[in-house]
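Table S5 (text form). Sequence records supplied for joint modeling of the two-component complex.
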Amino acid sequence: MSWPGNGSSQPPRVVRMSEITLVEAINMALAYEMQADDNVIVLGEDVGINGGVFRATAGLLQRFGEERVIDTPLAEALISGMAIGMAAQGLRPVAEIQFMGFIYPTLDQLVSHASRLRNRTRGRLTCPMVLRAPFGGGIRAPEHHSESTEAMFAHIPGLRVVIPSSPTRAYGLILAAIRNSDPVVFLEPKRIYRLIKQEVTDNGEALPLDVCFVLRPGTDITLVSWGAMIHETVKAADTLDEQGVSAEVIDVATLKPLEMGTILESVQRTGRCVIVHEAALSGGWGAEIAAQLSEHALLHLLAPVQRVTGYDTVMPFLKLEGYYMPSVERIVNTVHTALKFS
Amino acid sequence: MSQQKSSATFQIQHTQFLNPSGEAIAGPLPSWAKDGEVLIPLYRNMVQTRTFDAKAINLQRTGKLGTYASPLGQEAIGVGVASAMIDEDVMLPTYREYSAQLWRGVTMTELLLYWGGDERGSDFAVPRQDFPMCVPIATHTSHAVGVAYAMKLRKQKRIAVCFLGDGATSKGDFYESINAAGVWQLPILFVVANNQWAISVPRSRQTAAQTLAQKGIAAGIKCEQVDGNDIIAVRHVAQQAINDARGGGGPHLIEALTYRLSDHTTADDASRYRDKQEVEAQWQYDPVPRLRNYLIGLEAWSDEQEQSLLAECSASVDAAVREYSDTAAVAPQAMFDHLYEELPDVMAWQRQLAAASGGADE
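The corresponding structure-token record, covering 704 residues in total, follows.
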């Protein structure tokens, strides 16, 4: 096919650089990849004419047409299942679930099909799909709109679970997720959708999956987090810095498969680790990281691995959500507990 | 006074050509219905499926196969529909459509590997794009929607054919899928093989609806009923639906009425929940003798041909069983080989551990 405007078989590569938000970075990456690859399809509820309730797909319908930017009936299991069918036919569907609170009907499809289609057919059929969903609390949203249940997805063999924490990582990671040949659950921390702006170059360059990113180096303690909580974690590191404590901050980014090398290397140097996540404590992904630290770094540890997380409660409605979410203060206090241990 | 009018009316057509004795009771028959060259391959497939089935149950009873689901009694539906498809179409079966799968080129060895607990059984050598059997009920109906969407998007003249059972029509996945297929007018055929039993729950307890076909009405898609034990009728309505869907006419739903003559699976004992008399009475509708009698009536089939077919089918099944038994076992680490396109580095040690448990030193 030829592309409108330049008549060549290559998509136009007009490189844009602009200060944009995380949700705008998602939008820019989707547009880039839809232009570059005819097989990329966007589907979900209100993703078309409305451009998505968070505007992540704004403008895509106008640019790529309703056959490739599909407003689906209101049926989440269908959205995930049809993405599997499309992917098995060689398309690269990027399906949006409007909020994580509505993602659970897709669990059947993710566990029973998406994550195992390649395996059960010995590679004959594959499932290069992305399931996007905004998640997390702190935006004074209604009931069911604030949970963080990433660990449920990270537990499923055969899936990838990826969470960006900034506009640049959102751009690079969503491109990587779309180009990956296996299913990716891509969870977008909606509290920081518009919190910060970064300069993002629209050059189509993906970031690597399956690796952690060291956001700032440090020597006294390792702070591990992902998604929106990266921001509280970095602020805590700033506060600690003022107090003379050097904290290394690691953004896990790909929760599954979990690349522990970066975390282990750091903790072997610092001897202390605090894991920060919004999700409930028990069985959260922090538990997996802590378990692997105890398996592989026990003799390097100078203090027990600590976790600063949401409580093992139902996510409270908006009036109490501020008490549920890990705060900078809780992180700093927990770091001091770890530092004092030995 | 309020004004009342009818906002919608509907009727469900039921098609049958042959009576249980294999005599034509309605006409005109489709043009191919008197052509032995068309009919005999269908008959061979049904007999082959039934021969395979008997052997598979034996293999399970003697510990050479895992739990197995029998298609006994509903062989006409699979082959009736599959023979109306073209190779480029995509079939999404459940676990009782061996007649359809065999028609499309899945081998008996592959079926045995699958039920014998070997993933290679779903790596079909021939219908490469067909889906593997779907076990979680109705969850593949939305895959069919996605497959058909891809075909329509690419302006291909292909269709998706999705088989499901009566129980599946009670699930949300089914409603979501037929509804979406209607919205986008997709090239898709849903075949409900209504064998009257979802394990122990009879059709009467699945729904108060008069027919399962009429569920398509609510989705705005074309729907009808057929005698699923009358292969002439099944193939005829499937061919019409498939031609229409292929030509852009939108989705179809066919409810094919049949009866599960077997237990649900080899792990089931249907005598716990249904009367022996009911099952015995259903044997008179058996699709295999129905077609055989019809062929004999056409003078297109003889006793000699029957004997030679039975011998041939047994020999093919025996050959498949030998090939299945002779298939080299997979190494334990094979469970890692197709998990992802490339195994993540962090899983390498697990793969080594599994390999070591199988005696391999990797």
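Note: Residues 1-8 of chain A have pLDDT under 50 and may be disordered.
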